[in-house]
Every structure is written in C-alpha cells, then in structure tokens.
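Figure S7 source data.
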Amino acid sequence: MPTHQTARRPLYTETTTSQALYLPIAPPTLGTAGAIIGRELYSGKAFIYCPFSAFGDGLPGGNMLIMGDTGRGKSALTKTYVGRQIRLGRQVVVLDTKEQTEREEGEWAALGRAITGKAPVRFIPGGGQTPTRINPMDPAISGKRQIELVRTVVELGLGKQLDEFAGSALRLAIRQANRRAADADRVPVLTDVATALRSPQETDAAAKKRSREELLNDGLEASYVLDRLCGTDADASGDLVGMLDGPTSLGIDLDADMVVFDLTRVPSGGVAMTILVAVIAVFLEEVWLRPVCECGAPPAKHERLTVDTRSGAWQLGASEESGCPRYAQRKRIMVCEEAWHILGTPQLAALLEKFLKFARGYGLSCVFIVHHLSDLDDSAETAAALKMADTIVIYSMKVAEAAATVKRLGLPAWTAEHISRLRRGIALWKVGDIIYPGVQHLLTEAEQHLCFSSGSMTDSTASAPSL
Ligand SMILES: Nc1ncnc2c1ncn2[C@@H]1O[C@H](COP(=O)(O)OP(=O)(O)O)[C@@H](O)[C@H]1O
Ligand SMILES: [Mg+2]
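Tokens for the predicted magnesium ion complex:
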C-alpha cells in the first residue's frame, strides 16, 4: 500500500467565471420564468420571455410590438409563444384580421382548435349560415361605456364627430331604447336606438328646452347612419348586417383558454372592420377582463386580510371555496394580427390606448403584429399607442424600411443594416431598454403544422411540411 497518494486539487471557479467560459450553461438573461422562445445566437443562451415576470426587472409594461416583412416568422413566433403561455395558465384572445382569400378561415383557427377544441368566433358580413353577433347594446356593457360605444359606432360610420346636439339626442335615444326593450322583456339592439332617434319623447325634449321637432332634427342624421350600418327591413345591405345588429351570440365562450375572433372575411380597411374592432374591444373590456384569480374564483370569494390596522391597508388572501392560498390575478394576452388596421386608425388607436391603460391593472399584455411602421400613419393617437409597446421584436425588412423603423423607434444606427440581414426565424428583440440583436425562435416538430402559413406563395411539392 502506498503511503502517499497523489491528489489532484479541484479547480475552483465562481459560477460567473464558468459562465463566461461557456455561455450556453449560463442562465437566460431575462430569468427562467416564462415561455421559452429559443436562443440568443451570439451567446447561445436560452431566451425565455414573460411580460408578467419581467415586469419588476425594468420592463415598464407588458405590451409587445412585432414587425417585419411577410414570411419572416412573426405569426409563427406569436402562435407558439401564446401556446406556451397558455400552458402557464394564461388566457388568450386573438383578433385575426388578416384578410384571407384562399382559405375558408383565418390562420389562427387551427391553433385555437388544437388548444380548446372550439371553432373560432367568425364574423361574416351578411351573417352567413350561422351568424355570430356582438351587440353594442348588450346589458353586460355598463351604461356610460355603452353610450360611448354607440357614439363611436355612429361617428365611425359618419366619418366625423357628432356635435353636442346630436350627441345629446343619441344619449336620450339610447336610454329610451333601453327602457322600451326592458318593458318588452327583451335585449335592446342598435336598430332600437335608430327607432328611438326618430321618435323622441316630449318629456326628453322639454327637459332639454327643445321642441320635439328640434330634438328629432338633432338626431336624424345619426339614425340614418345606424340604418345604413344595420340595414332596415326593406334593405339588408348594411355594412354591419349579420354582425352587430342583434343580440350577442350565445356561442361566444369568454372563459375558454383561447378565443379566436376571426375577422378575415370582413373587408380590411372598411368601416365595418373598424366598428367591429371597436365593439369587440369594449366587449372584452367589460366581460372578458373581469378580475379573477388564477384558481378561477373571483376576488369576492377570497378573504380580505388587513395588513396594517392603522392605515387599513389590506390584501386578498385565501379562498375557502377553491382552497387557493392567495389571490393572484389571472394573466391575459390579447393578440392583434395585422394590427395596422387598428393602430393606423386614429379613433381605434385612441380607444386601444384607453383599453391598454385600463387593462394594465388586470394583468393584460397585448401583442400587435404589423409589417412596417410605414403602414401606420403619423397621428398623435397612433404614436401614443406605439409608445405603449415595451417589448419590440423586429424581423428582417428591406433596408429603407429598416432605416425608417430604427429612426422612428430611436434604436442605434447600426441596427438598421443588421435588421435587413436577419434570417427567417431570427429577430432583434428590444426588451425595455436592452437590445438582444439575434434571438432565434425555435419551433418544435409538434408546433410546426400549426404555424405553417406560406401556402399561397409556394408550389404544392415545396409547401408540404416535411414529416
Ligand atoms: N423559427 C422558425 N423556424 C422554422 N420555420 C419557421 C420559423 N418561423 C417561421 N417559420 C416558417 O415560415 C413560414 C412563414 O412564417 P410566418 O410566421 O407565417 O411569417 P409572417 O407572419 O412573418 O408572415 C411559416 O410557414 C413557418 O412555418
Ligand atoms: Mg403572419
């Protein structure tokens, strides 16, 4: 037996030292909580993103803007991202507004079906066989919001703002329509407002120190707009016929993990699209965004714990009913495909800005997908809505577009050329103030068929995804 043994002294390294030597083992920069996106090309580190967990780490808000040329991977990223977030318990709503001519339904339908087993909520001008309707006069929308909403519908249809007289006549008519419908024990609809505008009541006129004729004159133009949009018994060609002109369809289940609003049949850029999006946004705000805990129980079912008796500060604790230990707001994600319809329309951008401000408290993150910033106009509303995006993901675009984008977003000058050279599936990410120049989005085999989108530009042999 040897009396002495040689011993090799272990090599001591700090974790950070070894990370610097071999980056792929380093933890992801943005933390490990959230959805896996793929990897950072320059370091090889994993890239994990969650707008809700990164909140405390310098990310002021949870909204994302994704842009780049067609076919670069914007939709594929968003689809897998929300799919992966749903696994973490999030709820997702998608506004699929990309007009499709070669397909029966929007490109998000397959993902929605794969996750919830449900077909998308499809809006079809004229109604089609099984029309889906959202009712701007739905009692689920509270009084003040309802007045604002119907006014927005009329103003969008009219193409200008209502003056004080017309606005007042409209408010009175909405109230009257609500009263009449309640008397008849049914839900009020937009055509009731048109009818009420044409038959103002003596008492309403007197209260406003106007004659009945004057009040009728004030609201007549608004009633014509509603007739044109919703059609009349004699004329069913209105822009909104079959979509907004009746009670809300019972088939819309806003409790599902994922709801896809398929607007791909609605002509893009038209008044119907604009109005539909406005109504859906308010409907979501009033019905979908109600506060609820991740356990499914509303705040009222959680006990209220006083944290400090002197100030009366309190927080929500356990729920006896669901056995949940602490109230945690359920997080939600709203995706707008081809969001330039929305961001590029000042009225919608303004509405959206309000929606986003309101939604922040309810843990909502919005994802907007656009091609280029040149799709959007320069209005103050659009600029404000753009400012709400705290995470920006840029896929490859042409040099001129890239230069314009970089300038408008205030990114460093070198990023312009870099952006124009990015390959498919690789993007520059700006999270808060930090730039990650090359993030590769990784698609698993199981996700590929849900993201496959380039059917109309490739021939049949090349377009079939390899199995
Ligand atoms: N990270 C990726 N890896 C592999 N294929 C991808 C990736 N991203 C997108 N693709 C493929 O590229 C095609 C176009 O992507 P898509 O997301 O629809 O582009 P965009 O929305 O930017 O127009 C799709 O068929 C998709 O399967
Ligand atoms: Mg796309």
